[in-house]
Every structure is written in structure tokens, then in C-alpha cells.
């Protein structure tokens, strides 16, 4: 067939292929690219951004969109959603000058590199000027797209990029509710768990054994890296990430001598992302709907694997004997309660990616508050380290000793990913709602994990979340899955039940 809709989807296929090529260059940049390739990579990314932008803003596409608009009354649900998402993407692209798109992409490469160098040098001043440029370009991008997104503020436009339809006011209200519940929980549980022996988690494990453990766990979860039909792989990087598109999805992790459990939990988290990417409806490949509903939903998939499975008693009842087999005698003296308490100790810490489930939301609340202040003009880039340190003292009662463990601990701002952090918290809230639904509709799901069958509950996630891709906005998707509107209550209930079972 050669209908206007068919021709429209053929155009989107070119956009999808261009974007997936862009992602592979980002993967290479953070894994195997030589240090001297930064400037060239910036030019390459800038060019691909220009090409993608030209595709979206071309007159030819505009004509096709108009022709398709005339017959949209005949579309089925998927076709109508494809048309809506593509039209919205085009309207956003048309609102941004091509030079700005290229400059933003190029600066992302430069500022990410500056972030890495600043961390090595432990010198904020190396990163600050490049971050200022990234902030300025990001504001210009957001300002240009506000009308197309229906956003009232710059920060709303930034959040919309990751959580379509959510405003910073809505996010702020949810985070405020979460913070009110988590602070007293952190006070109570940090006192109860203070004597847990967490040294178990930092035992020296050869990196080969670490890689064997991580590979074994992610394959158990269903992220295939070994068969002749594998669509995934694992590589080394400084900051863990997942990138790819349905049939080629790649995890990158950081391995250190004393970091087996950091690598393992990072691997499970990224495997959750990767499975969502791979489990998108394959029939929709190269269509606008073939993407995640939002980064909050993406984070719900990753954090479900990491926390609801990876730090649970059920998982370690099954996996501890296997861990001992893969690591020799290194954990022969460790019992189930020992490892469960070590992994679920509640502690006010400095580093987000190492935070427990209870305090993690406070790390996100801090970042969200800083971004909200930055993009409302209340603070400048120069003032970020001070604000960061002050909020960590206020919310978590910890003193930041240097900017590597402070304002420079995350790569997101160097990438220009402003408005992203709240997605982690939304992911937790979605997970709380998933758990409440699972307990009603599949009460045996925890037992299946204990039997070494985590793919049973992940099958539920695939059926109810993954396969719908972006057919629905996150608010509607969660309503369909759980029958309820988003709130912090179910997540708080899950936390209280889980941790009371460990620290009764």
C-alpha cells in the first residue's frame, strides 16, 4: 500500500535509523573511543542532529503530514498514536533552529568530556564554564519548544522531554509528599540498621569473577548476551548506562576491585532498562510508538529489577549459593540474613547510585530542587556546588568533602539532561503501584523469584508495561496497569513492609 500514512511511516523509519546511529556513537564515546576523538565526535553528533532535524522539518514531511491529517479519522489506535507522536515531534523540531540543535549536541560531547576531566582533577572549575554553555543552550532549546509542548515554563518544557505531560509543579508535589514520608522512615531505619556489617559488600573480588556474576544474573533475567541470537552486550565505562534500539541494546558498567555489588546492582538496574528496550512491540519497530512511554516508566522497569528483585530476600535465597560458587571461598562465611541486611542497610550517604531505597528519593529531591532553582533564575551555575552541599546537609545530614562526591557525581547535567532526575523518583512511585497490583493479581510472584524464576514476574512487566511502548502517555499507562492515579502512598507502603521484615 502507498497511503499517506504508509509514506509517513517510511519517513519516520529514516528518522529512527538516524537516531539509533546517534545512540551508537554515544555508546562508543563512553566505552572505546580514544581520548583524542572528542572534537571529531562532537562534529559527528552535531551533523547527525542536523540531519535528523532536517528530516523532521522538511517541506516534504509537512505535505505528508497534511495529507495524513485529512484521513486520520480512519486510523486505528496505533495509527492515530503514531500520527500524533510524529506530528508532535515535528512541531517541536520546527520550533528549534537547526544551528541550535547542532550546537546543543556538540556542546553535549564537549561538556561530558569536561565533566570526566574535572572529576579526574577534582576541580569544579574545569567543568563550570562548559556547564554554563550547556545550561544556556538548554534554556534556549526549552524556550523555543514551549509552545509546541504546551509548557508554561522553561523547566516544564525540559521535564516534558522525559515525562510527557508532567509539569514541574506536579513533580514537586509528588516529591514533597515522598520527602515527608521518607525523612522519618530514614531516621528510624538508619538507627535500627546501623550495626549491619556492610564490609561484606566491599570484599575484593577479581574482576573476571565480577563479570561472570553480572553476566550470569543479567542472563537469568532474560538479557541475552551469550547466544547466537543475542541482542545485548556488556562493556566497561565510567558511569553505567544503557543505550540501543530493540534489536541492539547495550549495557555499560563500571567494575572496580572492591565493587562487586556496585557492579551487580548496576547490572541489574541497567538490565531492567535494556529489557524494556528489547521488549518493545517488535511489530512497531521504526514507528513513533516504538519507544518508552517516558523515562519515569523506563526507570520503573530498571528499579523494579534492581530493588523489587535484586535486594529482596526471595532473590538472595536463590542466588547466594550460586554467588558462592562463582566467587570461590570469598563469601563462604556469609549467610542469607548477613547479605540481606548489608544490602538493605539504611544510611544517609553522599552518592545517589549507592543509596538505599529509603534515602534514594531524598537524593532525587535535592537534584530536582536545584534544577528548579537554576531554571527559575534563583541560582547560577557558579552557585551550584554551594547549594548542593547545603541541601545534602539539610536533607541527609552529610558533609560533602569535594565536588566529585558532590555536584559532579552525575553525568546528566554535562549531557544537558535537565529535567531528567525526577524520572527516577517517578519510577519508584510507579513501582510501588506495580507491587500493589501484583500482590492482588499474582500473589505468587515473590515465590517464583525464590525458585530462580524472576522471568515470571518480568513476563508480567513485559505484558503490562513493556509491550505497550509509547502507545499511551505515562499517566494513562499506569492507570491501565494499576487502576489508580499516580501517588506516593503505595511505594511508601512497600518500603515500610519490606524494611520492617528485615529490621523488625
**How would you sum up the major sheet?**
3 strands, mixed
CATH class label of the largest domain: Mainly Alpha
Derived from helix and strand composition plus strand pairing, the structural class reads mainly alpha
Tell me what the CATH architecture of the largest domain is. Orthogonal Bundle
Total strands: the figure is: 3
* Estimated radius of gyration: 22 Å
Structure description:
It is a single chain. This protein has helices at residues 4-29, 38-57, 59-70, 77-94, 98-121, 124-149, 154-160, 168-192, 207-221, 260-278, 295-309, 313-326, 336-343, 357-374, 384-396, 412-415, 422-441, 445-450, 454-464, 474-482, 489-502; strands spanning 232-236, 241-245, 248-253. It is mainly alpha-helical and 504 residues long. It folds into 2 domains: 4-168, no CATH class; 169-375 and 418-502, Neurolysin, domain 3, CATH 1.10.1370. It has a 3-stranded mixed β-sheet, with helices on both faces. Strand 2 and strand 3 (248-253) form a beta hairpin. It is globular and about 70 Å long. The termini are far apart.
Amino acid at each position: 500500500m502507498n497511503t499517506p500514512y504508509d509514506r509517513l511511516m517510511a519517513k519516520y523509519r529514516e528518522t529512527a535509523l538516524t537516531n539509533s546511529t546517534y545512540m551508537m556513537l554515544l555508546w562508543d564515546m563512553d566505552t572505546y573511543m580514544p581520548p583524542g576523538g572528542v572534537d571529531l565526535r562532537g562534529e559527528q553528533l552535531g551533523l547527525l542532529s542536523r540531519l535528523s532535524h532536517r528530516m523532521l522539518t522538511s517541506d516534504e514531511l509537512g505535505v505528508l503530514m497534511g495529507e495524513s491529517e485529512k484521513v486520520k479519522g480512519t486510523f486505528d489506535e496505533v495509527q492515530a498514536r503514531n500520527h500524533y507522536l510524529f506530528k508532535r515531534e515535528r512541531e517541536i523540531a520546527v520550533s528549534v533552529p537547526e544551528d541550535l540543535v547542532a550546537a546543543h549536541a556538540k556542546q553535549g560531547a564537549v561538556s561530558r568530556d569536561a565533566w570526566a576531566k574535572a572529576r579526574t582533577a577534582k576541580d569544579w572549575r574545569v567543568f563550570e564554564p562548559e556547564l554554563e554553555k550547556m545550561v544556556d543552550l538548554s534554556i534556549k532549546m526549552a524556550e523555543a519548544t514551549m509552545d509546541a509542548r504546551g509548557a508554561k515554563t522553561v523547566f516544564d518544557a525540559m521535564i516534558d522531554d522525559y515525562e510527557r505531560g508532567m509539569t514541574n509543579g506536579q513533580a514537586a508535589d509528588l516529591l514533597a509528599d515522598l520527602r515527608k514520608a521518607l525523612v522519618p522512615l530514614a531516621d528510624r531505619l538508619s538507627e535500627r540498621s546501623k550495626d549491619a556489617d556492610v564490609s561484606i559488600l566491599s570484599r575484593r573480588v577479581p574482576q573476571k569473577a565480577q563479570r561472570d556474576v553480572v553476566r550470569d544474573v543479567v542472563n537469568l533475567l532474560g538479557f541475552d548476551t551469550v547466544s547466537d541470537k543475542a541482542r545485548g552486550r556488556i562493556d566497561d565505562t565510567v558511569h553505567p548506562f544503557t543505550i540501543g534500539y530493540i534489536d541492539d541494546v547495550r549495557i555499560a558498567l563500571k567494575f572496580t576491585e572492591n565493587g562487586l555489588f556496585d557492579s551487580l546492582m548496576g547490572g541489574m538496574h541497567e538490565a531492567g532498562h535494556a529489557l524494556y528496550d528489547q521488549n518493545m512491540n517488535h511489530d512497531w519497530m521504526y514507528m513513533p510508538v516504538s519507544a518508552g512511554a517516558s523515562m519515569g516508566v523506563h526507570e520503573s522497569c530498571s528499579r523494579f529489577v534492581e530493588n523489587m528483585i535484586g535486594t529482596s530476600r526471595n532473590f538472595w535465597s536463590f542466588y547466594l549459593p550460586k554467588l558462592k560458587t562463582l566467587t570461590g571461598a570469598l563469601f563462604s562465611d556469609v549467610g542469607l540474613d548477613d547479605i540481606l541486611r548489608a544490602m538493605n542497610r539504611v544510611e544517609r550517604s553522599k552518592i545517589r547510585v549507592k543509596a538505599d531505597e529509603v534515602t534514594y528519593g531524598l537524593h532525587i529531591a535535592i537534584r530536582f530542587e536545584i534544577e528548579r532553582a537554576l531554571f527559575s533564575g534563583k541560582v547560577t551555575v557558579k552557585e551550584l556546588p554551594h547549594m548542593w552541599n547545603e541541601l545534602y546537609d539539610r536533607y541527609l545530614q552529610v558533609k560533602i568533602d569535594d565536588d566529585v562526591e558532590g555536584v559532579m557525581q552525575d553525568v546528566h547535567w554535562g549531557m544537558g539532561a535537565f529535567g531528567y532526575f525526577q524520572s527516577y523518583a517517578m519510577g519508584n512511585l510507579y513501582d510501588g503501584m506495580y507491587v500493589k497490583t501484583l500482590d492482588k493479581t499474582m500473589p505468587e510472584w515473590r515465590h517464583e523469584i525464590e525458585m530462580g524464576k524472576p522471568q515470571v514476574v518480568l513476563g508480567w512487566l513485559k505484558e503490562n508495561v513493556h509491550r505497550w511502548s509509547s502507545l499511551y502517555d505515562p499517566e494513562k499507562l499506569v492507570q491501565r496497569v494499576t487502576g489508580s492515579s499516580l501517588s506516593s502512598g503505595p511505594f511508601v507502603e512497600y518500603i515500610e513492609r519490606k524494611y520492617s521484615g528485615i529490621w523488625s
